[in-house]
Amino acid sequence: MAEAVVIALLKILGTAAAEETVRGFIRSALRMVTSSSDRARARDEIDDVKRELESMVSFLRIADTVRDPNDPVSIWVKQVREEAYKVEDIIEEFMCWAAGQSITDAFRIKNNLRRLDDITKRLKRAKSSVREISERRRDEGEAQRLADEQARSRCLSELSSLVEHEHGMLVGLEQSRLSLTGQLTGGGARQTVIAVLGMGGLGKTTLVSCVYNSHQVKKHFECAAWISVSRDTEPMDFLTSATTQLFREEDSDTDDTRSTTINLSTLARKINDYLRPRRYVIILDNVWGAEFANAIIDAAFPDNERGSRIVITTRMEGVASILAHHTHNLECLNSEDALTLFRKKAFRRSSGRVFTEEFLHWAQSIIAKCDGLPLAITAIGGLVSLQNTPEEWRRIHDSLDWNPNNNQDLNRVNRVLMSSFDELPYYLRHCFLYCSMFPEGSSIRRKRLIRLWVAEGLVEERRGLTMEEVAEANLKELVFRSVLLVKDTNECGRIKSFRVHDVVREIALSVAKDERFSEVFRRSTQGSSRCTEARRLSIHTTDHQFSRAISMPSLRSFSVFGAATFSQLFPRGMMPSLGFKLLRVLELNGTPIESVPNEVFDLFNLRYLGLRGTKVRELPKSLERLRNLETLDLFNTEMHILPCKISKLQSLRHLFILNKIEARKHRITRFFFRGETLAGVWELKGLQTLRTISSNPEIARKIGGLTQMRSLSIMGVRSVHGMDLCASIAKMERLLRLCMIAANEPMREFLRLENLSPPPRHLQKLILIGQMEGVPRWFFSLRNLTHLWLLDSQLRESENPLLVLGSLPSLAHLTLDDAYKGRELRFPLQSFPALKVLCLSKMLRLVSVVFLPGVMPELRELHVRSCAELMEPPKGVRYLTKLQQLCLVIMPSQFIEKVRGADHASFKHIADVKHHYKGADGRWSVQLL
């Protein structure tokens, strides 16, 4: 990992920003009082250090894989890393200091000379240390000693595969799958708790996930929730996660659970009351403590004698013995199943390769080292998947240098996983370690992670690509290597969120802490002095408070997960004493803070300020001092206005500024961040994300200057803005997502979009909210559009909107919400070739829906909601041969009776048919049809 640190430092030393800051300050401040040779001293010292570090990179690439802490090479690597950190601190401290200096008087010049001299001396000492370390390495001849290790390392694949079982590779668990399915869907009416027990990496979560997501199980239960439980999970967080999933369709219920005043017992009782009349299945994944789980089960999940089931996965035998009525004890695979799994992984990309005796010999030898653990087998199977000869397999076998010892099995697996980690190229290593800072079992959103990586400086520049595009490529590579696991995808298969396997995360946490990359404070963290030198800190517990004796001058990132507040973490006046002067990322998303300490706005280095979901109501005018800020996330805060003209933040790339609660309603009655507040937004030439801005004539006319824009949301659009706004959007050639919301006060306005021609050719997501006179003709050119939402559009039947929409070749998701005034929706022959999800909602005049043969050959989900005049079920549903889910919400009783009765045969091929409705008491219920 020292290689990644050194390369990151070299990038800083060579950046235009560093060059300009150092040279510019010296040139301006010292022009009249020093010689040209004196002015060059600081820059020369930087260049010398840079050259010395560059000479080490190729050696570090090999030496970084030496894991024995007592090995001379490992000690040398640690020394290089420490010196690289020191130099990075010196340079960034100088850049922060120089940027804030004035050179208008002799007194300041004198002080500046003194400061510059101090920095030069520190650089000299650092250069001397780096040179001494480099010479020591050469004298000891370590490079030659490592030559053989380099040759052995080359045999390792470019693609590692730290992956738990994929559903298609559920080897050795078929009997457990059938048994678990039977226990969920059969048996008595009493509530039953079933445990899946085993060490990390045996496939517990994968087995349960396979069963949980099967059509047989989905259809059997009225409601379900999957809750990941870590050692640090708070009871309130647990119950909040349960309500989010259980009340998915019930907006009023979810709004109640978001209240900050609701207490634990009230929330548990609310869940209990909701589940009591329903057959439910709850998955508690990765339970560590029986007492915690037992209390939650007793309080929130009633034994309602309806055949409800609770499944827990755990590594702890005591948890299973205390909680479960039935236990599935997973074991390592036998040699036959292990070989089957290994072959599936090793040959997944080369089906034509012949599994010869030589391949078999080395496969069996490799499997023997895996000791039957599925995670280890899939990891090594991934490593060999692109190696084409038995000789390459032999080299991989020889390079896996771990042996059975007195440690637990997991320690041997760590060796396997670490071998894959060592194979990550330097540009991925810190990206991967960064993911360990998120809470255990958490879902990591793709876009959020990309923005954080960029802000942290973990992404290299590549010609022709933005930093965000490079970061996304890195993310895809980590997924391909199975270091990160996919959690959720959209209808097009694009990844929406990720997670890190628990075992892999533990390894990453250990490496990150050892290398001072980051540290996580969780309930198991003892003391606080250990993190004083961490460069990134993530807080996962609410019971920590920093000591006044601690200083963190090298901290680059500070993130808080959970309900901790600044006042809890930092007693009054504490934050300045911690020395966060080099901070690049401050993320407080979801915390109940009401104000941000003034010291934050003195952080010259700050790139990312995340306040999403907080109670912050205002920011000081000093916000404009954050000249390097790239991401400002004020989404779902209580702010109504920015304190400065946004044009002051010239480095800004991503700006989120809309209140989320209002955004969910679609029919927005007031606008936040008025256009005049965002005057000059068109001057932010690097802006890629703007969500959401309120339109006015000037913004509509000038926003076209944002040619780097990828995601734009604009609300309060009036008819008179149409021509200018269309002309502006047409200039955004890189636009991927566009949301336009018509003004609705003092009157409902039309969206005038006819002049948007040509539209951005890469557009993938389009959200239009407001009345339209028809579907614009330029829709025909949206060849890359995958997602379309039309809300309140009020399209006329005579316009035949389906003729245009059905021709879009890539459209995978279509939502029509109060979008059509006609009485019949007739989906044409051979239309919607790629559509997978169709949502029809609130079309109050609709009386007939017809699917003709050949329509929507890929449709998986059909949602119909609140169509009050639709008494007849859709005709032609039998032509939708791949339809798996039909979700009906608040539909007329006549419609429901026909689906269940006379027309039931037309829906028999659909695995999951449910009706969500409100009873007389106002409670939501689910009916299986």
TrEMBL record:
Tagged with keyword Signal: yes
Positions of the Disease resistance N-terminal domain: 8-102
Residue intervals of the Disease resistance protein winged helix domain: 437-508
Coiled-coil ranges (or none): none
GO BP field: defense response to bacterium; innate immune response-activating signaling pathway; plant-type hypersensitive response
Pfam families in alphabetical order: LRR_14, NB-ARC, Rx_N, WHD_DRP
Domain NB-ARC per the UniProt entry, residue ranges: 181-350
Record GO terms (molecular function): ADP binding
Superkingdom per UniProt: Eukaryota
Signal sequence interval, chain numbering: 1-18
Keywords: Leucine-rich repeat, Nucleotide-binding, Plant defense, Repeat, Signal
Domain spans labelled Disease resistance R13L4/SHOC-2-like LRR: 555-902
Similarity annotation: Belongs to the disease resistance NB-LRR family.
Name the record gives this protein: Disease resistance protein RPM1
Organism per entry: Acorus calamus
